[in-house]
Amino acid sequence: MNSGRKLRMVLLGAMLGTAASMNLASAAEPPLKVGLLEDVSGDLAFMGMPKLHGSQLAVEEINKSGGILGRQIELIHLDPQGDNARYQEFGRRLLNRDKVDVLIGGITSASREALRPIVDRTTTPYFYTNQYEGGVCDASMISMGAVPEQQFSTLIPWMVEKFGKKVYVIAADYNFGQISAEWNRKIMKDLGGEVVGEEFIPLGVSQFAQTIQNIQKAKPDWLLTINVGAAQDSFFEQAAAANLNLPMGSSIKVMLGFEHKRFKPPALNNMHATANWFEEIDTPEATEFKKRWHAKFPDELYINDMGYNAYNALYMYKALVEKAKSIKLEDMRKVIATGDACIDAPEGKVCIDPKSQHTSHRMRLISVGPKHEVKVEKDYGTIQPYWLGEIGCDLTKKNDKDQYTPSHLPNKS
Amino acid sequence: MSAELFSLFYQFADVFAFLILSAAGLAIVFGMMGVINMAHGEFIMCGAYVTVGLVNLGVPLAIAQILAALTAGLIGVLVEFLVVRRFYKRPLDSLLATWGLSLIVTQSMLLIVGSAVRGIGTPEGSFAIGGYTFSTYRLVLFGCAVAVLAGLYIIFMKTRFGVIARATMQNAAMAKALGARTGRIYAISFGIGTGLAGLCGALYAPTMTLIPTMGATFVVESFVTVVIGGANVLLGTAPAAVFLAMIRMALNASYGQIIGQIGMLVAVILIIRVLPEGLSSVLVRRGR
User: What distance in Å separates the CA atoms of residue B240 and residue B223, rounded to the nearest whole number?
Assistant: First the structure.
């Protein structure tokens, strides 16, 4: 009894001692605050969870290896639950009250566009970590995901060549789906193809019997599926049950929504996508990365590209801060302007383009087989995010704070 | 031509089945009993998850679906006993209580089961007419919807329990004075309602993505159908579903899903404006 109490006292003393010394160390260098907004509840939770995990893994690794500029990172995660108003409220809270040094996150393009004006009022850098419909020309935002010139300009010509010139589009009815469909129209027109049908579907719709028949009536050669969310994903199961049996292409399926893991084969058979990351990549760097991830999160169903990009975002932030030797956005942007803002990611080397502040990616075209096995059909190597620069966005000279699309181009001045 | 006609029927049957199956349980709980059950979608989710869980354990689909409906029904009886019973005289508070229950259940499912569950796949079977191919299972759903309506008719119109239940809903004090065990009647009726919600989830489980918030995709349609239908489950819900399915099917086919959804909700607003008591008020008056 007595010795037990003694032991406890010693342990307590030791704990207090280490706690005190840790306090001293951190008092000298307060941690960098990273604000993270990711959905881990609500309709998109299954995609958002890997984003939180990727961020947690990167923070843990960076902290273990000495932090950024010798400072530890403190991750402050809030869950906006898929609600754009909450994205704004929590964004304000992180920026104004918690005074985070960097803001990361947002799932849908709607949530990103809800956040961006709030970020633009501050001098805090903001990392958006999803693939998206492209076109945001904003000095406060650094985009880590792939964009249409990396995804659609590769996928659509390949699909046209392999399956034919007639495409039918089913798209989620909000900015991502609408602008992606616009990209498809533009690329199909350039290729001399035909969009035989376009259907925009409200988020939350889960019944597709009519859509399936509209598709059969239009007789396309292949489908472009840019439907979003768990409810709309029911399309795949219902189309398979009705024996629709058409080749499909997408910029978000498989690597992002891991439908091939969530649906019973062969619902996703004959799906194609171009991606900078999918869990089936088996290069040594990717395998090593997957091993670390699954060691920390053994229950992860799939490491999706959003989660992977979220992981990279923190390393990119670290690289920018350490090259700039500053946590100020303007100093970090000077590094970006040199074109030397690169990291060695699990996919290979990726760099931030100075004009658009979007990221170069190594793109691969993948297909899904009848047993939901994933195969690489074509490796495009590294593709630059060139489109914004070509149409006249140059953030090293001018901050447009706008989102451009093929039908909304910058004014020629 | 016949292919086009069958296609129209198939689309109507598909929307009708969705409306009836998602609304049948609510028609009893909300339409008859007056409990604004915001957790209706969570009973649907419960049916879906139990079905998938049992199928993954090797139980045949049809048996899993029946067991799932029974599970949702039993949980419903329990919920009635623990929560809903206290709110019969305070319908607006029942809204808050069941909404709270719904939040707790979705969040707990997210924490315990995770954000996504692998689907079990729709039973094989499709057939072709003209240039179209159809899933056989969707017709099974339509058959189930018709069977549910027939079952409700028999339970509430042809059995002793049905007579007492309807008496209890109309005038609980009088029914009690005449010797009906109203407490038990309420519990069983609520259980039938949630059991039907569970059946809806069980039937749609193979065709959908399972996530904890999946019930939400059914809730709007189910409330709309019940509100349009009015207080009488049999004379209200079925015609309401026919009416809404016609509108939605026609608009979906000609103008796409967005207009289909908007059109259906506009029709709902118009009907509530013209017939605040719902379709059944007209039909019942005609009947007398």
Answer: 11
For residue range B41-92, what is the model confidence (pLDDT) as tens digits? 999 999 999 999 999 999 999 999 999 999 999 999 999 999 999 998 888 8
Domain assignment present for residue A337? The answer is: yes
Give yes or no for a contact between B25 and B197, defined as CB atoms under 8 angstroms apart: yes
Q: Does residue B215 have a pLDDT over 80?
A: yes
Are A209 and B10 a contacting pair at CB < 8 A?
A: yes
CB–CB contact A217 B116 (8 Å): no
Whether residue A93 is contained in a domain is answered as: yes
- Regarding whether A194 and A117 lie in a shared domain, the answer is no
Residues in chain B within 8 Å Cβ distance of A260 = none
CB contact under 8 A, B214 and A201: no
**pLDDT of residue B288 exceeding 80:** no
Domain count, chain A: 2
Question: Is ipTM over 0.90?
Answer: no
The last residue of one of the domains, among A230, A260, A275, is: A275
Residues of A whose CB is below 8 A from B139: none
Structural domain of residue A208, as residue ranges?
149-275
CB B139 within 8 A of CB B17: no
Q: What backbone torsions phi and psi does residue B212 show, to the nearest 5 degrees?
A: -60, -25
Helix/strand/coil (H, E, C) string of A265-331? CCCCCCEEEEECCCCCCCCHHHHHHHHHHHHHCCCCCCCCHHHHHHHHHHHHHHHHHHHHCCCCHHH
Does A410 fall in a domain?
Answer: no
Strands A222-226 and A248-250: parallel
Site from A38, A53, A174, A234 to mutate, B interface, most B CB atoms within 10 angstroms: A234
Question: Tell me, what's the pLDDT at A24?
Answer: 45
**C-alpha span between A188 and A153 (Å, rounded):** 10
Return the pLDDT at B218: 93
Check A234 against B212: CB less than 8 A apart: no
B55 interfacial to chain A (CB closer than 8 Å): no
Task: Check whether residue A286 and residue A395 sit in a common domain.
Answer: yes
**Is B115 close to A199, i.e. CB distance below 8 A?**
no
Q: Mean pLDDT per 10-residue run, chain A (413 residues)?
A: 51 48 56 96 91 98 95 96 95 96 96 96 97 96 97 97 97 95 97 96 91 94 96 94 95 95 94 97 96 96 96 98 96 96 96 97 97 97 97 96 95 69
> Residue B213, CB half-sphere, CA atoms under 13 Å: how many?
17
Distances (CA, A) of A110 to A106, A113, A116, A174: 9, 5, 10, 7
Q: Which residues pair with A73 in a beta bridge?
A: A32
A238 contacts in B (CB within 8 Å)?
A: 122, 135, 207
Q: Tell me which of A275, A307, A342 is where a domain ends.
A: A275
Whether A160 and A142 map to the same domain: the answer is no
Q: Is A21 inside a domain boundary?
A: no
Say yes or no: A334 and A394 in one domain.
Answer: yes
Domains annotated for chain B, with CATH where assigned, are 2-287 (1.10.3470)
Contact B256 A199 (CB under 8 A): yes
